[in-house]
Amino acid sequence: MPKVSVCIPSYNHARYIGASIESVLAQSFEDWELVIVDNFSTDDTQAVVKSFRDPRIRSYASDRNVGLVRNWNRCVSLARGEYVGILPADDIYLPRMLERSVAMLDAHPKVGFTYAACNYIDESGSVILQGTKRLDRDTVMRGSEVLKSLVMGNYIDAPSAMMRRDCYASVGYYAESYVYNADWSLYMRAALLHDVGFISDPQAWFRLHSGSLSSKFEKNPRLVLAEDLPLLEEIHARVPTTHEWNRLFREARRHAFDRHVGRSRELLLVGDAARFRAEISYALSRDQAFPLRYMEATILWLASLSGADIAKRLGSLERSFLRSLRRPGNGWN
After folding, report:
1. What is the pLDDT of residues 89-142, one digit of tens each?
2. Which of 40, 76, 125, 159 could crosslink 91 through cysteines, CB 3.0-4.6 Å?
3. pLDDT digits (tens, 9 = 90+) for 161-174
4. β-strand pairing of 119-121 with 204-207
């Protein structure tokens, strides 16, 4: 059996999947299998996959679309390796991704999964952002400590993660009750039971493009908040009832609303006042204290009734005012 199973779940990514496959073929660590599961694509994905000839590649094509999360779980269920990595069909491994991940998992039996810093590219492959390091060196962390930071938001990019196959089984794979947060849910549930390894050098390219899942959800902020809040409640119920954990989850809930307000403001900036109001109204329905905690958003909501331009000007004035306060010599850093 191979040491590592790399799983590529795909759906209509004919434009990108060739580069993903090539990045696996180029790995410095060679004891791997590649499991590709296509979720009933309607483009040329199958033709691209079949153009690769390597005995380590196993490909499957579904006869119907089963949804993203179920397709990811099917990938993992077909994996035979001791360690399993999910490489979305639009992302790319750097050459030492498997080597570095395997070395850490081999050296630390209590580590359930590893993740690495990640670089970001656009549709054409141009670099958008170099990976920022959460730590300056490779580190093994207690799961509880990782969970304390993870509840504030998911900072683990799927292509940079590798998990023991036994860890997937122990935590229940990807939860099909989530879509946007399926991987965030998995990482938090794994951190409840296992240590976590971090690789400080970037080991993958994460592609940002208009057809990605994250882009679709970013345009519909309430879909994200509707998953964030129940997920936080689910994880909160699984940690000790202590003052520290209760405080952390109150802060995490606030962070979820912060992200929602930020995404909603983007709608206003492009002139979609009606959708902005709908998103803020949704947040109001989920948190009765919202008007007090987010007075600025509430004021912009009221201003947008007179038109998006007025609300945008108010928002621009506010940002200019804050920038002036943060200039050197004003005491703000």
Report:
1. 999 999 999 999 999 999 999 999 999 999 999 999 999 988 766 788 999 999
2. 159
3. 999 999 999 999 99
4. parallel
Please give, one letter per residue, the 3-state secondary structure of 234-281. Answer: HHHCCCCCCHHHHHHHHHHHHHHHHHHHHHHHHHHHCCCHHHHHHHHH
Q: Which fold has domain 4-209?
A: Spore Coat Polysaccharide Biosynthesis Protein SpsA; Chain A (3.90.550)
Summary mean pLDDT of the chain? 91
- Compute and round to an integer the Cα radius of gyration of the chain: 22
User: Which ranges in the chain are annotated with CATH 3.90.550.10?
Assistant: 4-209
Instruction: Name 33's Cβ contacts closer than 8 Å, sequence gap at least 6.
Output: 2, 4, 5, 6, 56, 57, 58, 79, 80, 81
- Does residue 195 contact residue 210 with C-beta atoms inside 8 Å? no
Positive/negative CA dihedral, 168, 1, 106, 197: negative
